[in-house]
Design a protein that fits this description.
The chain is an alpha+beta fold. It contains five helices and six strands; from the N terminus they run ββαααβααβββ. The chain has helices spanning 23-27, 32-46, 55-58, 66-73, 87-103; strands at residues 2-4, 7-9, 64-65, 107-109, 126-129, 133-134. It has a three-stranded antiparallel beta sheet with strand order 2-1-6, with no helix packed on it. Strands 3-5-4 form a three-stranded antiparallel beta sheet. A hairpin with a 2-residue loop joins strand 1 (2-4) and strand 2. Helix 2 (32-46) packs across helix 5.
Length: 135
């Protein structure tokens, strides 16, 4: 569940939100809902300045910097029994899932603030939570 303007919304079918980012689960994603669940957990961990993946400092002024997420998950083994997507398909899955979150009103393309040092190569790959969204 994600809170938008004080109202709880459900993301996808049975897409419970993880409390801790699990890179093996993220690598195993094969559906938009699974990718969104992983991205929300990644964003949550990134809001913690002491995250184990240094998400906050490596995300270049964004809440969701897909190149950093992909760098973390590309080289880990998927969950046992899961047939992982090839990396190019995994990239497209996460880009599509992020755009769906934009269309749902959860994310917006661009850095957290206008004063942020935006990455010129982040077009379509970096997003921030809208101000009215709590995760």
């Amino acid at each position: 569940m994600v809170k938008v303007k004080g109202e709880m919304i459900t993301m996808g079918v049975n897409a419970s939100i993880a409390t801790v980012f699990d890179e093996r689960e993220a690598r195993s994603a094969t559906t938009t809902q699974e990718a969104q669940k992983a991205m929300i957990a990644f964003i949550k961990e990134g809001l913690d300045p002491h995250s184990r993946h240094s998400i906050a400092e490596r995300s270049k002024g964004y809440d969701l910097y897909l190149p950093w997420l992909m760098e973390i998950i590309e080289y880990v083994a998927p969950l046992e029994g899961k047939d992982p997507l090839p990396i190019p398909k995994l990239h497209r899955l996460y880009m599509d899932a992020a755009w769906d979150m934009v269309m749902q009103g959860l994310l917006r393309p661009g850095p957290k603030s206008m004063a942020g040092g935006a990455d010129p190569n982040a077009y379509g790959r970096a997003y921030s939570l809208r101000d009215d969204v709590e995760i």
